[in-house]
Amino acid sequence: MFFLNALPGAVAEGLIWGLMAIGVYISYKILDIADLTVDGSICTGACVCAVLISNGAPVWLSMIVAFIAGAAAGLVSGVFNTAFGIPSILAGILTQLILYSVNLAILGGKSLVSLVGGQHKLLLSMSNNPMAIVSAGLLITATIICLWLFFYTEVGLTLKSTGDNADMSRAQGVNVKFNKVLGLAIANGIVALAGSLLAQYKGSANINDGRGAIVIALAAIFIGLSVSLKIKPNFVVSLIGVVGGGIVYYIIYNFVVLLGLKTDYLKMLSAIIVVVFLAVPYIKGEYFKKQKSVVRASAVNNAGGGENA
After folding, report:
1. Direct distance between the N- and C-terminal alpha carbons of the chain, in angstroms, rounded to an integer
2. Has residue 258 got a pLDDT over 90?
C-alpha cells in the first residue's frame, strides 16, 4: 500500500529525470562525448528558475532563461574542448567546477532558495503529483517532437554524422567543432530545463542538486535502451525509452527506499544499476560469442573427420 501511494511521485520525478536523461543521450549517444557538465548545468537550471520565480517572473520565462543558461554552460564546455584542445571529460569537469561558483552567485551566496506553491504559480508541484505527471509529460512530448524535427534537418543530420564518424564528416566539409559545441549547448539546455522542473517540483533549488546527476541519467539511458532497441530502433522510440528508463529507475529507487535501505547507500544503488545494465549485455554477448566459436570448432572437426574417413 505504501508503495502504491508512492508510485505517482516516483512517476513524476522519473519523468523529470527522464527529460534530463534526454539531454545526456544527445551528448553521450549522438555526439559520443562523455560530458560531465550536466552535474552543474542541471543545478544551474534549478537555481535560475527558482530565483526568477521567487522574484516574480512568470514560470514560462524562468524556464526559458534556465534553458539558455544551461545552453551557455554547454557552450563553454564545448569551447574548452574544441578551441583549447582540452579532452571532453576534463572540459566537463572544469565547467562543472566553474558552475558551482556561478550557481552559488545566482542563489545570492545562499545554499538554498525556497519556492512556496501558494505564493508562486508553478507548472508542477510535489503536492499535486497527477498534475505534475501531466505537465512534465506534455513538456517532454514537445521536447521530443522538437528534437525529432531538428535532427532531420541538414544541421541535425550533420550533427549526427559528427558523432558517428568525425573524420569522415570533416572530409565531407562538415564543421565538426561547431557541431560539437552546438550539440553540447542543446544537451545542457535540456538538462537545465529538467533542472527548472525539478526546482518547481521540490519547491526549492539547492546548490547540491546536481550531485550524481550523470549516474541517474546513464541509468535511465541504459534501462530505456535495453528495452526500446528491441521494439523499434529509431530516434523517437529511443528518446521515449530513455524517459521510460527514468520512470523505471525512480520506481526501483522508491521501492528500495520503502524496503528500508539507508539514504547513505542510494548513490551506490544508482551506480550498481548502471553497472548491471552495462555488464549484462556485455556478458551475454561474450557468452554467445564463445558458444558460436565452440559450434564452429566442432563443425570444423566433424568436417575434418569426414574427409579422413
Report:
1. 70
2. no
| The amino acid at 26 | I
Does position 264 have pLDDT exceeding 80, yes or no? no
> How much is the pTM?
0.89
- Give the CA diameter of the chain: 91
Say if residue 228's pLDDT is above 70: no
Residue count of the chain: 309
If you write DSSP's letter for every residue of the chain in order, what string do you get? -HHHHHHHHHHHHHHHHHHHHHHHHIIIIIS----TTHHHHHHHHHHHHHHHHHTT--HHHHHHHHHHHHHHHHHHHHHHHHTS---HHHHHHHHHHHHHHHHHHHTTT-SEEE--TTTS--S--TT-HHHHHHHHHHHHHHHHHHHHHHTTSHHHHHHHHHHH-HHHHHHTT--HHHHHHHHHHHHHHHHHHHHHHHHHHHTEEETTTTTTHHHHHHHHHHHHHHHHHHH--SHHHHHHHHHHHHHHHHHHHHHHHHTT--GGGHHHHHHHHHHHHHHHHHHHHHHHHHHHHHHHHHHHHHHHHHHH-
Mean pLDDT over residues 293-309, rounded?
67
Q: What is the pLDDT of residues 23-39, one digit of tens each?
A: 999 999 999 998 999 99
φ/ψ of residue 63, rounded to 5 = -70, -35
Kindly state the percentage of the chain with pLDDT values over 70.
93
What is the rounded average pLDDT for all residues in the chain? 88
- Left if phi > 0, otherwise alpha if psi is -120 to 50, otherwise beta: which for 109? left
Residues 34 and 53: their CA atoms lie apart, in Å, by 32
